[in-house]
Amino acid sequence: MTKSRLFCLLVVLGSVFMILFIIVYWDNVGVANFNLHTSFSKSLPPHSSGEHPTPLPSTENSAVSDVDKFLDSFLNFGVTKNGLQSTKEEKLSTRKSTSLEENVRGYDWSSRTKLEDGILDQELIQQERKLNMRNFCDNSSFNFPTKHLDFDDIPNKDLDHLIVDDRHGIIYCYVPKVACTNWKRVMIVLSESLLDKKGVPYQDPLQIPREDVHNTSSHLTFNKFWRRYGKFSRHMMKIKLKKYTKFIFVRDPFVRLISAFRSKFELENEDFYRSFAIPILTRYSNRTNVPPSAGEALSSGTKPSFSQFIQYLLDVRTEEQRPFNEHWRQVYRLCHPCQIDYDFIGKLETLDEDTSQLLRQLNIDSLFQFPPSYRNLTASSWEEDWFSKIPLEWRQKLYKLFEADFVLFGYPKPDILLNV
Prior knowledge:
The protein is mostly helical. The protein is 44% helix and 5% strand.
């Protein structure tokens, strides 16, 4: 071997060694002296309206890891991470939503109540929720699909609900029909991942158009890590899961199904009509001819019944042909609670209290006002009426299908629906 080839080999081996050394070191040491939940807005200089402030140089308060920068540079991915621009001077005003769903439901600001000290011990509630989830994840007598799956064995496509904000060190697993639209808006504002028409990162969550909120390109999710980190993607996921604050919001599983049915089958939705309503009507209503479009179906009063929707969920052919849509897929399949140790578990039933607590815990409560809930929110009290025409046997099978979500997140078994 010539000296030149030997020298090249040593350079390559040395580079590989340095990469592995940095990764291992970062994994062991972590974000030394970093406070991932510090409000960065206090360190930014004032700026005139309409102008985006010049990003500050990276400091010890940045939650963007050095290994991120190193790997981005080494692998030439060129990922840009801007400094945080925040403002709290613009007050939220009444807006006309372009979304049919939001026009129908409307917003309700009146539910925003200020908690008095001592009414709810939020820390104790969180401890109980997390302990309940961990106990059942560790309970060998309670089993459900994917429970014993190792994190490395979860397919990338099943990690697409984990949204990452590297700027604040936050990971949010979104669950459709559990205020996820507004939490996605918050994550866009925090990460500055989307610009408005002036080319400035959105500062007000409610100004972000709904179609942009649910556009996958607006968010950095775990299933995109392979593009950024390549073969190091799983290692980087584990580092961020270890260092960042991870949160999730859940809801009574049966009420979530009602909400999904209402928004996807009772409102005009072309995609859901073609993908789900037509197959349901064709299979369970004994109809050979159904309207070809959602508009024609709505005008003629043709739509799946709630009973047919439940029948569709229970049909073994459904999962064989395609996995459950995310709007009715079980939370344990979306967010992997037994593989990911969540730091905060919020519930839609206590959305105001939990949101206030989480924003304070993340130290971002002064950056913006969390968007309001819908006026026409599906209520838990509707559950008995909606399931009254569902056969008892179906209700019992449906509970078994969603039992893990009931148990892991502390929702009581709906005995009144399962025994009558």
